[in-house]
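Subject: sequence -> structure tokens, single chain

Hey, anyone have a minute? Need the predicted structure for the following. Not urgent.
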Amino acid sequence: MDGCKKALLIPIYTEDDYFNKKIDNTIKFLDKIYKGVGTTSEAYRCLRDDIVDEVLLFQSELQMYQDDYLGTRFEKRFKEKLLKELESNSLYSGFKKTTFLNMKIKL
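Reply:
Had a minute. Here:
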């Protein structure tokens, strides 16, 4: 391997065929990014690593919220920060939303 980071995203399919198609298209897109399909540039590695870093950081913050901040005086502030990460204008918000749903953490 080239020493790049990897993230494991597990899709959760529903009864909604339209939503499931979007999941499949996202998986194909990520696979192309990961493999650098259609490009002779090495820039895809930067994008790939950036997505992985963002998703892993968000996953870590969700776990920290659940394990360390629930029920403390910092809960509200940390919760607001996490909710901002799920807004559509946040970097890679779609991946973060999927991570959030998979982790089943209540905000």
